[in-house]
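Hi there, hope your week has been kind to you so far. Please have a think about how the structure follows from the sequence. I've dropped the whole record in just underneath, so have a look:

_____
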Amino acid sequence: MKTIIINRHAKSDWAKEELTDFDRPLNKRGQKDAPEMALRLKKRGLKIDKVFSSPANRAITTCKIFCEVLALNFSEVNQVMEIYENGKKAVINNAAALSDSINTVIFFGHNPDFSELITWYSGERFGNLPTCGIVAIDFDTNQWKETKEINGTIRFIDYPKNGAG
């Protein structure tokens, strides 16, 4: 089995209009939600083998917080500009190219691409992935290249306002 975890960045700060979209930081709620959601993910006991992130400030900051909580090496995060520019395609291609020795991967990025990606991977109509939302999708295969060809099954959906954990 292969598992892809889709993690939308935490809530960003729109207060400084002079900042570009790429440079927007997390706001106070995002700074609070990210460690909480990382703890919820940690409690699920998944062993994450590889981490990818958009290099946009709000995504990479969310990623860094998760790495700290999950005891993952942030220096080994694969920052992929295409996740910012064309997230759906970037995730699909990066996942399909993974070594089959890897079982679980997490991607940090943006909407609307990530919500569309969940629909594409699962074959189920998916609405909007909230900020700092996490979706794990399992694929009944031992080969990453097959994740381009088969539908996965949503294992769980979690986000700050659902109170799960």
Observations:
- The longest strand covers residues 2-8.
